[in-house]
From TrEMBL:
Source superkingdom: Bacteria
Family (UniProt): Belongs to the short-chain dehydrogenases/reductases (SDR) family.
Name listed for the protein in its UniProt record: NAD(P)-dependent dehydrogenase, short-chain alcohol dehydrogenase family
Transmembrane parts of this sequence: none
Length: 265
């Protein structure tokens, strides 16, 4: 039986990049990968509020192509390669209310943040993975990509659905070349972004956050486990997928939603 120390060191020597890694699910993923021995690089728009952070940080807005190139160049110069790429960047910051509230700029921004940032970063870092014939790419999507809520997630859902399709196509292309590509679709997670989302909609509806949370659970069809996920629970799935234990998993879209998803896939 393996010791805890051996288990925790399964990513020793691996270099990982986590986008959007200073908050929420991304922050939890960073912590879990470091626990497993990986050298972790984090990129986000704003400097982390962690004076004792042990990871390397690159400030960048990955919705802009030139910023993606800046990150890729910095990684190649300092580290030479990436073994694990976690495309966690994403946001649902677009107006609710349906199609008539969304402008061309909203649609473009939704695609830049939730789809094209990952596409560009993959394109910049994947060649080195193919050269070394090993690597894992994880795209953090959302159950919204398959279960859109027109009142609040239309643009976000469309962009995540496109990410799901792109991820599957990329996985098929590179599987025989030693690189695995997997999608993770979280349901409701108790993050800072979710708290802000609930507070904003509660204010608009003139109800409490607790009432808004209950309405959200009802709108998505209920969560059998009865609560939102902790970010650390989603991070644990991501850790498993990048570990050698998941070496035969590629091209899949793994849903982690407390039983919420209403159909059999």
């Amino acid at each position: 039986m393996e010791s805890k120390q051996t288990i925790e060191a399964v990513l020793q020597g691996k270099i990982a990049l986590v986008t959007g890694g200073t908050k929420g699910i991304g922050k939890a993923i960073v912590k879990r990968l470091e626990q497993a021995g990986a050298t972790v690089i984090v990129t986000a728009r704003n400097q982390p509020n962690e004076p004792d952070a042990t990871y390397s940080f690159i400030a960048a807005d990955l919705s802009r192509a030139e910023e993606v190139n800046k990150v890729a160049n910095a990684i190649h110069e300092q580290f030479g390669r990436i073994d694990i790429l976690i495309n966690n960047m994403g946001a649902n910051t677009f107006p609710g209310g349906g199609f008539n509230t969304l402008t061309d700029e909203h649609w473009n921004q939704a695609l830049q943040v939730n789809l094209l940032s990952s596409v560009r970063l993959d394109k910049a870092l994947l060649p080195k993975m193919l050269e070394q014939k090993s690597g894992v790419i994880i795209h953090i999507s959302s159950t919204s990509g398959q279960f859109p809520i027109w009142e609040s997630t239309m643009a976000y859902s469309v962009a995540k659905s496109a990410l799901n399709t792109y991820s599957k196509a990329l996985a098929t292309e590179v599987a025989s070349k030693g690189v695995r590509v997997v999608t993770v679709s979280p349901g409701l997670n108790k993050t800072e972004a979710m708290t802000t989302f609930l507070e904003d909609y509660a204010q608009q509806a003139h109800i409490t956050v607790e009432e808004m949370t209950s309405k959200l659970f009802e709108r998505v069809g209920g969560v059998p486990i009865g609560r939102m996920a902790e970010p650390e629970e989603t991070a644990e799935l991501v850790y498993f997928l990048v570990s050698p234990a998941a070496s035969y998993i590629t091209g899949a879209n793994l849903i982690i939603d407390g039983g919420n998803f209403p159909v059999v896939k």
